[in-house]
Specification:
Helix content is about 15%, strand content about 30%. By secondary structure, it is α+β, with helices and mostly antiparallel strands. It has a domain of about 290 residues: 3-Layer(aba) Sandwich (Rossmann fold). The strands form nine sheets. A seven-stranded mixed sheet has the order 3-4-5-2-1-8-9. It is globular.
Length: about 650
Amino acid sequence: MTPRPRSVLHVVAHQDDDLYFMNPDLLRSLENGDQVTTVVLTAGEGDGVNIDTGDARRAEAVPDFTGYSTARGCGLRSAYALMVTGDRDRPWHRHAVRLAPDLVAERFVLDGADRVSLYFLQLHEGAPTDLGTRTRLADLWDGRLPAHATLPVHGGTAGDAQRVTREGVVTALTTLLDHHRPTTVRTLDPDPEHDGGKAEFVRSDHDDHTVTAEFVLAALERYREAGHAPVVEHYRGYANRFWGENLDPAAITEKGAYLAAYAGIGAPARCPQGTCERCGDRQLGADPFRSTHMRSTAYRYSPATDWLRLGPGGRLNAFAVLGGRLAFWTETAPAGGQWAGPYVLGEGWVAPTLAVGGLPGGPAEVVALRRSGSAERGTGVDVVHTVQHADGSGFHGWRGLGNPDEAHPDQRRQREVGVPSVAVDHDGRLYVFVRDFAQGVSVRRRETNGEWTPWQSLGGRFLQDAGTALTTGRGTVELYVPGKQKIWRWFQSEQGGAFQLDDSLSTGRPATGGVTAVDSGDGRTCLYFREAGTQQVMAYRQHADGSWPGSGAGLGGHGGTGAVAALWVAERGAREACLAHRGSTGRPVLSLPDRNREVTGTHWNESGEMFTNAPAMARDASGAVVVAVVGTDGRLHIRRQLSPEPGSPMGPWLG
């Protein structure tokens, strides 16, 4: 198969958003030689004072909005030049480009690396209206402001200030999508969580971040109408500070170095780009590490590892979201056939993470989050469900399951619903779990007669948006959800019974990004997750009497972020399971048991290309282990064990 060019488009609100929230993913794409394009919507002029926020001299400083915006843009270009070439002073070529009838933007192309482009749309953060008040990007999005002013920078090529409509912004982004044809689009969080530690509603993120994501989704829907279906990734913003750090010390140090370049630390007295007097964002001060939210890079929709499964006819199926629609691939024959797909189905816009379950070998049950609405009506989010055809050929339409907080008059509550987890018990009952507004967990169940129960709260407090459900060998269902300091567990004593909270599990602090639970035989569950602050893979295996160990086993790993895919190997231990995770380079890292039973422990090996979301693992019809990822090229990539014997080597990556 001919390799597909990887083109990654980032759309952010401010000049530092990609450095704070998308790195090191951004850096890895640059290192991989991908076409990388970043679009900054606002001028980011803030209060116009380019002095350390902790410096007392700020109180007497005269705001210079144009100067501060210019300096921030210069700082971002310095950081990119350093990431790509190692030389922060590498020059850029700048020119004006018309992206919409009412919007001319500036494009910067890095000298000697024309695959790297930056676009600055310069929408005024605090543009004055005819009433003399200050407004923000949100007013343009929701129609309170018919047009929004731009703030030209010093030395700019885009001309004088422009008045840009909402339609103009969407058109501009659609134009960029059409021109750069991204295989992956990265943007910010359209539905950020509130601060769960406050009694009143306090949004955790910047309004500009949220509205930027809304604009991007509107442009992506138009882009999709032209037949394009990229991978879309949304990154958490300030909410990173609430949860366990998910970058290891090396990644944090690396991230801080590029933020330091952006901040102008160590910059020459005069700007080498010739546009400002104090190059860089000096509000960050001399210590880029003082910001707590830079110590994680987390997805708003925590990726799952259950999207590869053995389905009807003994064929493996893989599931993803491409361009906001359900996509699936299927083997053409059991155990080693070619793959067909992706088949992209459905209407509406579905969030990037799916929950996939079903009875072994039967049709898949898929649950997702669907966003709907408009700037005028507001945005709604509901949980939706579909079932695969009995022969595996396709899917029925989406069925709406509502939302645990849909009855509340404050619409912001139901927009915070978390990514779903699903499980099907041995009698065919389907359980759907989501995090609710209270940052606990709610469940809805489809009974054996097909009837759905109402949403029910199971409780919990300060839970992450990253749970996983498991059907045990006894047919009961368990739920595991990372919290602030530990992983929470709910379980059933009998099939179809009520859920009980297990307060005996004490795992230590999990990193943001998910947990995986596997049935390890003899009625024992084994958990795999990342340890906050180190990112090493941890294993917690239940004792035979149902109790839990006081501490977990560290399994190492290759850094990185996200959930760990796992398959249990009979008559082996937690360290000898088949494991896969995303490493610090963004590539797959695998550990398989040694053929010799006497050789224990993990054996981590990195291979393949950079991928999105999280890996998945399953056994094919012959029992061989198969690992799957969706690359930043938007394609399914598969690696299969050469034989089903434990310790058998893996074949090459295909796709």
